[in-house]
Specification:
- The chain is mostly helical.
- The protein has one domain.
- Helices cover 79% and strands 5% of the residues.
- The mean pLDDT is 93.
Length: 116
């Protein structure tokens, strides 16, 4: 339970920092970053696996790069579902998902090192 909350907060920090760094992303405050993190997590758990199964042949043909497209589509879906979070376009959503992944990876590595 605590690990899940920590991961959710790390993802919220990554979303907040990425929204600050990338032009074309609008996010009101950190509270909405936490809410975006929750909605993005729910979307990634429910809808993303279905899209990955359907697009498996395309993912194989593109050597896995089509997963970036699916991630961008998940960000755009969250943009559609939430009022205080907006993404200007597909390429911005793709860059946003990549930056979130990198920031989250760094934050997770920092937190994991402190646990050991």
């Amino acid at each position: 339970m605590i690990n899940g909350i920590i991961r959710l907060l790390l993802q919220a920090i990554a979303i907040f920092v990425a929204a600050y760094l990338i032009p074309g992303i609008s996010l009101t405050n950190f509270g909405y970053a936490v809410l975006v993190s929750v909605v993005l997590s729910v979307v990634n758990v429910t809808i993303k696996p279905i899209l990955q199964i359907i697009s498996f042949p395309v993912t194989i043909l593109t050597l896995g790069f089509f997963t970036l497209v699916i991630n961008a589509l998940m960000v755009m879906l969250v943009d559609y579902l939430m009022d205080n979070f907006s993404v200007k376009g597909f390429w911005t959503a793709m860059l946003f998902s990549i930056v979130i992944s990198i920031i989250y990876w760094v934050l997770n590595a920092l937190v994991s090192d402190k646990k050991k």
